[in-house]
Structure formats: C-alpha cells, structure tokens
Amino acid sequence: MTLRLRLTALYSALFLLAGCALLAITYLLVARALPEQSLLSRGPVDYSGAGGPLRLELPPAFRETLDEEAARQRSTALHQLLVQSALGLALTAVMAVLLGWLMAGRVLRPLRHVTDAAHRLSPDNLYERVELDRPDDEFKELAETINAMLARLEAGFAFQRRFAATASHELRTPLTVQRSAAEVALADPEPSVASLRRMAGKILKATERQEGIIDSLLVLARSQEGIVHPAPVDLAKVAGTAIDDVTSDSDGNGVSVTRDLRPALALGDQPLLERLVANLVDNAVKHNVPGGWTRVRTVASQGHAVVEVVNSGPYVPPSVVASLFEPFRRHGDSRSGPRKGVGLGLAIVAAITSTHRGWITTQSRADGGLQISVGLPMPPPGRGPA
Asked: Where would you find the membrane-spanning parts of this chain (predicted)?
C-alpha cells in the first residue's frame, strides 16, 4: 500500500468511527426523549368543558391499547432514524474516501517533489538543492535537512577528490626521484662505485618517503573506522615515550622539549592515542626554529584527559590554522629542511580525536608557533589502566 492509500484509509476509518459515535449518541438521545407509554394512560385526565372541570378515567383495556400503539410508534421512529442515519453515513463515507484521496494527494505533493529531486541527484550534480516554495512546516524542514545533507555530501566528495589527487601527487614525487636516479646511473656507461652509492642513497630516501606516506595513509584510514575495544590509556606515559623518541632523534634541530606530565586517563585505542600524541610532539619539533622550544603538558580536567603542546616557531596566521588539519596541507615550506613533512600529521590527529569523540583547540601565538590542546573522554570511575 502506498502512503497515499494508507492516509486515505486512515482518514476514512476516522470519519467512520466519528460518524458511528455520532449516530449512537443521537439514537440514545432520541430514544430517551420518546416516551415508552401513552400520556393518556398514565392516570386520570382533567378536562375543562362548558359544564365545568371533568376528570375522565380511561378503562384499563383502552390504556393498554394506547401503550401498545405508543411503543409501536416509538420503535418505528427509532428504526427509521437508524436506517436513514446509516444511509446518510454510508453516502458521506464514500464522499470521505474520495475527499481523503484528494487531500492525501495534495498533502503528499511536496514529498513527491522532494523524492523526484532526490532521484535526480548523483555524485556529478550534488550542487543541486531541493527547492520548496512553502511556509515553514514539516516539509520545508525536510527540504532544508536534505539540502544540509547534500552540502555535507558535496563537501565530502570534493574532499575525497582533492585527497586522491594530492595523495597521487605525493606518491608520484618519490617515484619520479627514483626513476631519475636510475636513469642517470644507467646513462653512464661506466658508473663508478661512488655514483652508484649516490643513486642508491637517493632511491633509499625516496623509498623511505613513500613508506612514510603509505603508513600515514593507513593510520588515517584506520583512525576513521572507529574503536572496537576501548581501554584506559594514560596520556602522561604516552607523552613521555613520544618525547623520549623525539629528543633521541639527531634531526631535532636543537629544539628543547620540556614536560609537565600529570596522570590523565583517556578511554580509547592505545595505538591510535600513541600516534596522536607522537604526531603532536613531532609536529611541534619539526615545524620550529633552530634552538627553539616545545612544552608538553598532560592533565585531567572536567571529565577529559587533556594533552597540550606549545611550541615556538614561525608565525602562523589565524586564518590558516584550521586548514593545517586537512590532509597534505602545510604552512610555509615544510618540504625542505632536515625534517621534511608529508602533511598528514595533524590530519591524523584530527581524525583520531574525532573517532574518540574528543575536541581540539588551536591558537596561533603572537611571537610564533602554535598552542594545540586535545581533550579526550575519560573512562568511567573505578576503571583504571589495563
């Protein structure tokens, strides 16, 4: 059954119920108003004639005849009322079905308009919107909700296209380096050991860059799948390990890292949270100035485990801060320097935070660098780290 047919049936059924209720009430009221006995048979009848007042007493047999006639007329009247009312109800019920069918079609006309617009949509024309010239009602709200969903879908498809194009470009760059190094080596008919070693070094660096990009893409994809088995994770311990890894790296560019690590239990996936904190610390050291500084702090605050990373570095305009969390977005020339960036570090941080239903706040420092805070939900009371 279509929705129009179901609405018509519902309208008709409600009308019939209301009609039957009205018929029953009318029948009871009329039955109560009609007397069951003749008025003449209830007692002596006072009559005022020319000779003065008279009191007539009807014989019992005559009174019974009058009562029988009154009962018969009452029964006939009620029967006629019932038959004629049922006939009228049947005729109006047919009219109610027809009117209900027409009204249901009129009411559902905007819904058909929305359905037709949805059928026309495809990934190639997500820019189209459902237009309803109506007052503010439920159908108008439905159209606005669908338009908002289409806007999100359009943004998502555009993001995927940009992501695929940029990822292809990023993966093609090291392949081009490898190909060029191999072609240069093959062009030399008598290559020396030193030239071959230089070629091997270039190919090795390009391969490492490819591995880094692929690893980051895999983590980014995994972070968007959701958490299967969440467990309590102490961000203080995770941050301590990340700081130790960064400070042991010889490419730290002389950046000093200070820590203020207090216990902060977060509920989530431990490998993903380790990657989140490691990316924050690594990003703060990587995008810094020679001899700069980085401060890492963890704390439990208002039901959230918070990790805060503040660093010195080049000035970042507030207008570009939000774009840093998009894949393959870099501020300045992040491709050069001793610690080249892929542009996926903060995008992975944003994806992991979203998966854990956390929040991120980012502020640009006036004297250079960023202050990034990530808050993650804490486990229920009494549930400690595994």
From this structure: 81-102
In a shared domain, residues 239 and 352: yes
- pLDDT reported for residue 331: 63
CB 212 within 8 A of CB 171: no
In angstroms, rounded to a whole number, what is the distance separating the alpha carbons of residues 79 and 63?
24
The SS3 assignment for 174 reads: helix
d(CA 113, CA 96): 26
Q: Give the side-chain half-sphere CA count within 13 A for 46.
A: 2
- Contact between residue 308 and residue 372 where contact means Cβ atoms under 8 Å apart: yes
- pTM value is 0.60
Domain range spanning residue 241?
A: 224-377
The domain boundary, picked from 87, 120, 153, lies at 120
Helix axes 3-33, 60-120, angle to 10 degrees: 160
> Residues 36-55: what's their mean pLDDT?
62
364 forms beta bridges with 370
